[in-house]
């Protein structure tokens, strides 16, 4: 079904534009508004009140007021000023009275001409403005006014109480001009097709869409705004949830091979080897995954869990179950460091079970291969052959797994680690390598609030691991204000030495690598700032954001020659050769390195139980979730962990508040809420909210949890009853309008 023509009409046309061509051009280029419908869905950000009518005798200072009064006197004065040195400056002073008191209005410059003509003595009018004091007298400077010509009391009350919409604007187009444009197209709102089923709308007491659009743009009362917002929030939540429900419904129709582990197979042999018992959470999530794998349509499950909650073990057991059932499983990691780390930990956990021969043979073992882009030609050929013949049951790799040359014998399960780092196309390409759609397990260690999970990952079922395995130690976190208290920073390096002396190891994280390619400011001849490692603040806290971020290569050098002299210090960053990176990680894991100075390549998946302390330099340059991820690299053994967040930002700054929040809690879900509240939701929603017209405008994913949850239920019921929405043409129209091409592809590829 096509969109309603009136709403689809472009704002700018060659022959007949809805708006002036200049206005329409700015709207298209700066606000992404192209049609009448776009403009109607450009909602006010807030509303100014002219204020309730106030008697002149009761005027409050510094508040916006609206008064009705009669002009008693109006005088035009000329004066000399810097702008009008020859005495040509003009000031209009108007005195008004309402019987209870008197008030002076003042207008300057070119703004005097219209009021000088309008506000003649004896004229009655309404005036709105902010009360100020000049020469000990109350006044309104440049007030808005409306003449009352035989106006009734009702007209006076109505004008005074009106709410003035303030729109998201640009420097090229002020809010009031957008408001005028909206008023031009507002009659078209009557033709808006209502996407909500009538029963749903009636059952929840929501106003019809045309009424909501009128009330959001031209409210008479605050209740009008509340009615409109309640309705429009439901539109945004419901239409998105219907799109996701249709995706889930379509996935449920796809064929897949059911994969059930053998009772005495590889999985059972692996479980027998484990030196510990699974937590209740791991057992529960494993059951959910195995139930999905046993069905004949593809699993689409999101596994989220706190740092160190044992997600990798749960994913490995799922992969072994698929190998048991004659298939292959692939794990896609975002970086080579993480792919190598996963390969190492999986082969160590499996022991001789990872040294197998052919699939389906007499012995339980299988082969685990690593595939990354930087492997040598011979090793790569061997890995590709093992995948194609089926000899390798498990493969762990980076995006190199997606290349055309990679062929699987029978791909049954794809595990994507840290899915937000992969484009949809990459995930889709890997899923396309199965003879039938493989099962999909998406893992993330970034805790996602329930509503974001329902909004962004709404086409995935969700499992949550929120229980840490026995033996994991608590992590103490502290903010180190390097600029305010340099001795705190000196103490931080002492703590690192103490941990190393006790037989433990440390991470030092920096935002930048520090080689020339990484640092354009240095290539331009600018000297790098002194390192915080030396206990010196390079600049005052106020200008901290102007110096380059601290760099791994600089900090490692200064630490080795300064506060950590005598300790074994190594560096790790993303531009090192893969073999070098792997060698550094192996030495650190083996305890041959005391301090690893690294970028965020260690953020995810790196597991060295003996590392107990982490110092994050320039911590204010990292996001809340990223700091939580980094912190999760320590405290992974029996000794307690310590995380020190070093910053030069002043105590009152928002950055310090953010760091204080991280230091105050180890609850990743609480931190993700804080992160979401501090950032634009579009940043968090990322690809699912791409496209100017599809981002959320009135729906707030944290505040509107109840609406999103209810909309998901309603959407599931609607799609189950009518998957093609044949009986809901209005909803189909809304899907076409709201889901632009890019978003459709996103949902298609899941």
Gist?
This protein has 750 residues and is of the alpha/beta class. Helix 9 packs across helix 25 (705-721), helix 9 crosses helix 26 (729-738) and helix 10 (266-273) packs antiparallel against helix 12 (311-324).
Question: What does this protein structure show overall?
Answer:
By secondary structure, the chain is α/β, with parallel strands linked by helices. The protein has 27 helices and 21 strands. The protein has a seven-stranded parallel β-sheet, with helices on both faces. Helix 11 runs parallel beside helix 12, helix 13 (336-350) crosses helix 20 (578-590) and helix 16 (450-456) runs parallel beside helix 25. The two termini are 25 Å apart.
Strand content bin: 15-25%
Poorly predicted regions: 358-362, 520-545, 680-694, 741-750
Could you tell me how far the N terminus lies from the C terminus, measured between alpha carbons in angstroms? Answer: 25 Å
Summarize the amount of helix as a percent range: 25-40%
Largest sheet: 7 strands, parallel
Rg over CA atoms, rounded to whole Å, is 33 Å
Across the major sheet, the strand order is: 11-12-10-13-14-9-15
Mean pLDDT: 80
Helix and strand content put the structural class at alpha/beta
| Overall strand count | 21
Shape: globular
Q: Total helix count?
A: 27
